[in-house]
Structure formats: C-alpha cells, structure tokens
Amino acid sequence: MTSTVHSILCDGQWIKSQGTTTFQAVNPTTEETLPGIFPVSPWDEIDAVINVAAETSREMRGWPGTRFAEFLEAYANAIEARAELLVETAHAETGLAKSPRLKDGELPRTTNQLRQAANSARTESWRVPTIDTAANIRSMFGAIGPVVVFGPNNFPYAYNGIAGGDFAAAIAAGNPVIAKGHPCHPETTRIFAEAALEAIQATGMPRGLVQLIYRTSHEDGVKLVSDERIGAVGYTGARQTGLKLKAAADAAGKPIYLELSSINPVFMLKGALKERTAALADEFTGSCLMATGQFCTNPGLVIVPAGELGEGIIAAVAERFSKAAVGTMLSAGVRESFGIGVRTILDAGASLVTGGQSGGGKGVCFQNTLMRVSGRQFLANPHVFQTEAFGNGSLFVVADSVEQMVEIGELLEGNLTGGIYSDTAGSDDADYALIEKVLRIKVGRLLNDKMPTGVAVSSAMNHGGPFPATGHPGFTAVGFPASITRFGMLQSYDAVRPHRLPSVLQSKNPGGVWRRINGEWSTADVT
Amino acid sequence: MTSTVHSILCDGQWIKSQGTTTFQAVNPTTEETLPGIFPVSPWDEIDAVINVAAETSREMRGWPGTRFAEFLEAYANAIEARAELLVETAHAETGLAKSPRLKDGELPRTTNQLRQAANSARTESWRVPTIDTAANIRSMFGAIGPVVVFGPNNFPYAYNGIAGGDFAAAIAAGNPVIAKGHPCHPETTRIFAEAALEAIQATGMPRGLVQLIYRTSHEDGVKLVSDERIGAVGYTGARQTGLKLKAAADAAGKPIYLELSSINPVFMLKGALKERTAALADEFTGSCLMATGQFCTNPGLVIVPAGELGEGIIAAVAERFSKAAVGTMLSAGVRESFGIGVRTILDAGASLVTGGQSGGGKGVCFQNTLMRVSGRQFLANPHVFQTEAFGNGSLFVVADSVEQMVEIGELLEGNLTGGIYSDTAGSDDADYALIEKVLRIKVGRLLNDKMPTGVAVSSAMNHGGPFPATGHPGFTAVGFPASITRFGMLQSYDAVRPHRLPSVLQSKNPGGVWRRINGEWSTADVT
User: A20: how many CB neighbours lie within 10 A of its CB?
Assistant: First the structure.
C-alpha cells in the first residue's frame, strides 16, 4: 500500500497539492499517529486559491441573502448526514468525548449556528439598512470580499475554519471563504469540506464559495492575510501567531478579527461564599475541568477574600480537583504549553495547591492543577500572574479586602468574560458595585453567579472583549446578526437613481426587512 | 511687550507648558507669521493629560447619555456666541473665505454636528441595545475610554480635534477627549477650547472631559496613541503620518479610525457627455476648485471616453480652469505637497492641459491644474496615477472603451467616494451596471450625477471606505448615530441581576429607546 496525500479543495475540485511537505495528526488518547497524510500548501497553490476566491467574490456581488441562506441550510443538513463519521473522526483527532460533547453538544451547536446565520442572511437583518429621505442618501452593509478563516484546535466543529462561527458569518455576508484547517484535526476538516462541496452543488452556488487548505508555512500565512485580493480575516488561536498575522493584516489595511487569549477572571464575594461555598466549588470545578479546561472562556483566575471564606473555597476546590478524573488534552503541544504556563506562574511565586505535574490520566494529560497567590503578590507582578495556562488549571488570588479586589480589577488585561458571585440576600451589593465598575470595561461579557464556559449563540452575546482578548472591543465572534457585520463594508448610496439601488434600500419593502428610516426602525415601505 | 506662549488645557485649567519648543501659524493670504505663540508639549505634560482623561473616564462610567447631550448642546451655543471671532481667526489662519465658507457653511455645520451627536446621546440610539429574553443575555455599546482626536488642516471647525465630527462622536459615546490641535490653526482651536471649558462649567461636567494640546513630537504622538490608558484614536490627515500612528495603535490593540487620502474617481459616460457636457464641466469645475480643491472628497480622477466627447469635456474644463480665479491654499506645506503630487503624475507620463505652476493668485497658491493620460497609460502604471495631489487640480483618464473603464475601476485603490454620470434617457444604463459593479466595492459612498464634495451629516452617510482611504471599511466618520459606535465597546450582560443592568437594558423602557428584542426592533418594555 502506498500512502497518498490528501488533496486540497480549490474551485470545487479536489486538487493534488504541489507541496513536498506533509503532516499527520496524532490521536491524543492513544498517542498514535493517525493514518491520514495532509499537505503543507506552497505559495503558488495558495495564490491559485485566492484567485478563485476573488473571482467568486466578483461573481456574487449584489446577490440577495437568500442565496447564501439556502447554501448554509443545505450545508447544515449535509453535516448532519455525516454526524456519525464526524463524531468518530473528531474524537480520534482531539480526544474530546463523543457524548455529550461532540455528538450532543458541539455538532448541534455548529449546525444551529449555520442555520441562525442563514436566517440573518435571509432577513437581511445584518445589513443595517438606513434611509435618509431628506438627504436622499441610503446605506447598508455589503460583502467585504474573500474571507480567510483560521480555526483553533479546541473546537473541531463550532469554530472550525470551514464550519464554525466565523465561517458562517463570512458566508452570510455574501463572501467566499478560504478555510485554513487546524493541523490537529485535518480529517474532521476534510469531511466538512466534502459536505460543503455537496451543498454548493445542491444549491447551485459558485464552486469557489468554499475552499480548503490544511496548512501553510508561517511566511505564507502572513502573505495570505495581507494579500490585496483578501477582504478580511478571522483567526482564533494562540496569541503569538495571531499577533504576527494581525501585524501583517493591519499593515495592509485588512480587517482582521482575532480571538487570542483570555483568563476570564471570577470574583467571589464574601456573602456568596458564606451562603454557598460547596455549591460554588462544584460549579467552578465543573466549569474549569470540563473538556480538560480547553475552553477560551475557562475560568483561569479566581479572586477570593482572605481568611476562612477564601481558605474554605480553596480547600473545597482542591479536594474536588484531586478527586476528579484527569482528562485527555488535545495534543502534546497543548500539554506542553499548559506546563509552561503553570511553571511560569509558580516560578513567579504562586503556591501549588494541587496537581502541577504531567500525567494522571489517559493519553496526553496533565494533573488538574490549582495554584494560589496573595493579592499583594498579584499586584506586585500583575502581568505574569495573568499568563494564560490553557488547560485544566486555575489560579486563585487571595485578596485582603474589597479595595484590593478593585485594585486587582484595575490591573486586569482585556478578557472575553468576567464574573462576580454575590449572595442572594444583597449583603454583597455594595462590593459588587465597586468591582463591577472596574471589571465592566475589561471584559466583553459580564456574568452574575454563573461560570463563563458555555457561550450561548444569542443575538446579545459578546464573545469578544478588549485587547489582548481580541483585536477590537467593538465586535463579537458569536451571535447573529452582530458577528456577520465584521465581514461587511459600509456602502452609502448618494442620489443613486431608485431602480439602481439594492433591493433592501428601495422604497418598497416587500420582504419586511427591518430598516432605520429617518432615525426610526420600521418594516414598512418608504412613503 | 514680551511674547507669552499660550497655555495648554489640562484638567480644566490653562496650564503653562513645560516645553521649550514653540511654533506660530502663518496667514496664507498675507504670508505673514501670526502673533500667537504655541507650545510643543513634552511627554511629561502629555502624560499628565492622559492621567486626567483616564480618571475622568472612570468617573463617568455608566453615566446616561443625557449628561453628554447637555454638554454638547451647551458647547454648540458657546461656539455660536463666538462666531465672529472664530470666523476672523480661522480666515486669518487658513485663508478660507469668511463667507459663505466659514460663517455660513462650516460653522453652522459644526454646531449642527454637535447637536445631532447630542440627540443620539440623549436617545441612546447609538448603543444598539439588544435583548435576548430566552437566553437572559442583554448587550449594548458602552464608552471605550479616553479618545485622542487629531484634526486635519482643511476644516478648522468641522473636523477640528476639539469641535468636529470625531470629537462629537467620542463625547456622545461618553468618553473624555484629548484634542491634538492642527498646527496650521492653533488660535482657532484655542478659542474652541475656551468655549468647551465654558460649557463644561455650565453643565457641571468633569473638568477633564475636554483637554487640549497643540503639538507633540512625532515620537510622542506615537506614544500617545499606543498608551494603555487610551481607549481609541481618531485621525484625519496626511497618509504618511497616519500610517505611523496606525502601526503604533494597532500593535497596542487600540482601535484607530483614520481618514488618510482619497482621489474620488468620477466616471463620465457617453450619454451624459452627449447630453450635457457644458453643465458637467461647470459642475466639475465648481466642485474641484471650491476651497482651492482642499477637500478630502475632491474629484481628483475623472474617467472619460476617448474621442470627441472626452476631448470636449477636457477642453471645456480646461477653459474654465484657466479662467477661474486661483484660490489661496491653506499653507506653504499644502502647496508644496500639491506641487510634488502634480510633478509625480506628470513625470509618470501625464500631459499638462492647463496650470502646473506655483502662483497665479493671492498669497500661497498654485495654478488650477488639469492633467490627462490615456487609459493604456493608466493601466500600465495604476499606482502612480493614483497619487493624491491635494489641491485645485485633477487628472483626466481618457479610456478607449467601457471595458477599459472597467479595467481601470478594478485597479482603483480604496476611496471615500466614487461617482458615475449617465444620461437621463437610459442609454448609459448597461455601461453603468458594468462600472458600478467594480466601483461599488472600492468606495464608501457611491454617487449618481453628483459631485462628491459636500458631505451631508446624514444617518445614511458613509464618510469612509476601504484602505487606504481609511483604516477599516466598516466605519463612517460622519453621520449619527453610526459614527459614534466607533468609540464604543460592546458590552454583554449574561444573567446579570435585573436591578444591576444599565437603564437602557432594563425591562422597562420609559424613554422609548429603540432596542432589538428577540430580533425585532421595538420601543416597548420587555414583557
């Protein structure tokens, strides 16, 4: 048997890569190399893919949202038809549990996202059609051009470059997507591409609507995001790589939306701990160890009051961490990064409460790890104690007072989320107000009495936040229609003759699209 | 008489600058140095200003829009009370006509902008309040933090860092502003600061709401925009300086909104020229020479068909250009840049039709300048023929065919505006469709049968466009509420207890704010 290298998807065809370098994924549970061989695409091949995307973008200019809605819905169906294969494959490539995680959680979430995006495309709600009858000017968001999506390792479906939230949003805005698969789960990504191709054919969409490359050199990644034919970029992944891509895209004037890192601070106030320490320990442990802690919203920093209450929650969590099963991590690379993160925090003076070593479970793994520092230590070295240790661990900060909690809050970097637990009787309300005031501007999503993991696909979700959590605090990567607007450009029509206007800006509004007419929202015609 | 150096405005006080370097503006009409002496602020002074802004931002967190609306309206009144002085001063500093430009055009526009921003702040319309009752998540835009605004030379009022559109939008979003005055009109800027201080006092706003520095070193400008205490930056001005600031702000993860350069291509189709060449020549000449061509929306590139029609419009414009009075330019620097731009285009092979030399009018000036190239020449060297020559000149491109016009359109860089003139009978409609398809995605605002100068302050305006016209094609610098959102961060509230929500997200909606509730826009309560 000769091993064949998988093809890339370019212009609706499975094309043999011209590349000479290949890679294979590893099953993190068995630590065995998986059989699929995938190419690292050289620049000429990427260049051809960009050309097709640019041509496709031109072809689709001005198409109504229904075309994209039909594709997204057909794609969701085609994914569901491959559910069993996708679950088996993603489990082998990521070690994530088949059920409930992959089969009952992430896969339905992914098809739900595609269908919500389809709904926004069909209703044209993301376009923010705006009409000023006195000035005879009308505006809306239109497609921005080819979008490159880099998916992360930790969500093989819901954030996959070829199936996840950025993908769905980019398509809903009317753009072709160039998906860059994550090297940890290439076969999962390949199966999605087969489903996408089937949906393209079934709905008569251009063959270049969705294309797939598995891997590029770092140099070619930088060229790709800054190429003049590209409209925008979505990236979810490690901070260091993301910042390199950001620098390149920024210099070329290309919008790039990044989700880089987040430690998701959680403040636990005295009243809440008095009221329900055991329940909070359960809730925190469940959130922090779920999926071996490999969520971008994992609670990696918990601020508790000094004294009995703080000691009580730390002891309760330590007990649960040491008793809980140690999960399998996504890859040896993730374990290594987690170990480095833990070591960095300990070297800076944190104490190890439990865990701290590699091993303890099946395959690639690391003990459930709990660390602690005093508020004073944190304040003396706030940067290092905000090192992201991506995995099944967390750092507790024991603060001397609410005033110290506020000081800690002031020194927090930008995060996706921040939470505050307070008691139900209201005794924490004054402290809440003090902390909320500093925390609110550091995080995209503020939670009460709730752990940050579990990101609802809601119109009011902000899966975003100030730098370095993301590259811009005004955008969310999750939720419709808001996430779609990232992949649109604002287009104003000044004195353009009525019959030449896009349908959503014409005076008649047969589809009942929500439009802002002279400052008031309406689904009516312009009279 | 000893000359005194003007003070900067810091924390509500006029503070003597610690700087040792000063500058003076020049009256471009008389070419005489004006008497006011203004400081170049050293870093320590800028640092103190940033600290005040950060403290002010903290103090104002969560304040309702009405507070900012009251200030903006009081400020508009305080400006009107100084109208005569502002007109005299700005005329001396810029050479722009007192009437109609300064007194009847730009000043009313500026106070109108402040009042429109006030209206958006009061109605909270810019916040896009979004409520998902099923998920119990609510979101809105909130203040982003201290905003630095750099104003340009060509609008001493309407884009002034302390009075213009970016300023109004940043304040309406609830942020303090650090204004960086333009060195060409420091006294005008100083008078605005006096009016702002009066309005701050009259409305009981924090003293740090508006601060003013006149000038910094290039190095300190870079430090300022990338400082961690800053929320966002607005910049209108030269491309080279803007790109340096952009690189610094981008690297620090700070949103920066730039308006850099634009040549505003205009396509004139055959039918339109057949129908009304003389009228088009009048209209174009008026737009191109108004304010000595010193508008960011000046039509600097005109594409016309080869043959009699193209020759006819070129001859008609040449005649008008040579007969029209030569206006005074804003400064010797503007004249020098214009001359370099003209020389660059001529050196690349364009022919001079008329003008091309310094002089011809009063004070700092340059002849009204018309140049031409063939479509083939343009296509062979598209970059150089898109050099921005900011001033009273334009380049005509004589295209062999509509297909060649489309090719030219494909090679256009990002622009603020793009226009197409077609005949009224419909004979140009097919050509229009071809050109619109390529032009639409290159420009923020598409015009029909209308020159791009004259930017209405409309809710549907897009004064923006793809790079390098601006730094991001999704935002507008003019028009409310859209321009305000640039200075907001998206804030989601997940399971936050009802009484802790900001008022616009609470279930009761006594103010009748427009909110998106479960996907539908409404001014009602949540039931």
Answer: 9
**Distance between CA atoms of A281 and A289, rounded to whole angstroms?**
12
Q: What is the pLDDT of residues A12-64, one digit of tens each?
A: 999 999 999 999 999 999 999 999 999 999 999 999 999 999 999 999 999 99
On whether the CB atoms of residues B245 and B234 are closer than 8 A, the answer is: no
Q: How far apart are CA B6 and CA B35, in angstroms?
A: 11
Give per-residue pLDDT as tens, A283-321.
Answer: 999 999 999 999 999 999 999 999 999 999 999 999 999
Residue keyed to tokens 């204004």: B179
| Pairwise CB contact (< 8 Å): A494 & B61 | no
Q: What is the CATH number of the domain that holds A178?
A: 3.40.605.10
Beta strands A177-180 and A147-150 are parallel
What is the distance between the alpha carbons of residues B527 and B513, in angstroms, rounded to a whole number? 15
A contacts of B483 (beta carbons < 8 Å)? none
Residue A146: list chain B partners with CB under 8 A. Answer: none
Write down the ipTM of this complex. Answer: 0.97
The reply to whether A505 falls in a domain is no
Statement to judge: residues B290 and B202 lie in one domain: no
Q: A118 and A252 in one domain?
A: yes
List B45, B70, B124, B259, catalytic entry: B259
CB-based contact A199:A19 (threshold 8 Å) = no
Report which of B93, B149, B153 is spatially closest to residue B334, judged by C-alpha positions: B153
Residue A470, beta-bridge partner list: A259
CB contact under 8 A, B489 and A441: yes
- Please report whether residue A503 resides in a domain: no
B149 lies in the same domain as B193: yes
A81 lies in a domain? Answer: yes
Q: Are strands B13-15 and A22-23 parallel, antiparallel or unpaired?
A: unpaired
In order of A290, A373, B45, the CA distances from A322 in angstroms are: 14, 19, 54
Asked whether residue A199 falls in the same domain as residue A332, the answer is no
How many angstroms away from the CA of B58 is the closest CA of chain A?
Answer: 8
Q: Are residues A187 and A335 in the same domain?
A: no
For every residue of B50-116, DSSP letters joined together read HHHHHHHHHHHTT--HHHHHHHHHHHHHHHHTTHHHHHHHHHHHH---IIIIIIIIIHHHHHHHHHH
Do B275 and B253 have their domain in common? no
**Residues listed for chain B:** 527
* Cβ <8 Å between A462 and B139: yes
State the number of CA atoms in the 13 A half-sphere of B16 facing the CB: 4
What CATH number is given to the structural domain containing B275?
A: 3.40.309.10
A371 in the same domain as A335: yes
User: Do B365 and B335 contact (CB within 8 A), yes or no?
Assistant: yes
Tally the domains of chain A.
Answer: 2
A357 vs A351: CA distance, rounded Å: 14
Range of the domain at A20: 8-260+477-483
Q: Cβ of B480 under 8 Å from any chain A Cβ?
A: no
Task: Give the type of residue at B361.
Answer: G
Question: Cβ contact (<8 Å) for B466 and A475?
Answer: no
Contact A42, A1 (CB under 8 A): no
Residues 395-414 of B with CB under 8 A from A: 414
Cβ contacts of A498 on chain B, cutoff 8 Å = none
Chain A residue with Cα closest to B464: A490
pLDDT of residue A376: 98
Interface of A with B in 149-208 (CB under 8 A): none
What percentage of chain A exceeds 70 in pLDDT? 99
* Same-domain pairing of A232 and A333: no
- Asked whether residue A99 is assigned to any structural domain, the reply reads yes
Cα distances (angstroms) measured from residue B300 to each of A354, B236, B264, B297, B386 = 68, 18, 6, 8, 9
Record: contact B462-A518, CB cut-off 8 A = no
For residues A275 and A259, what is the distance between their CA atoms, to the nearest angstrom? 36
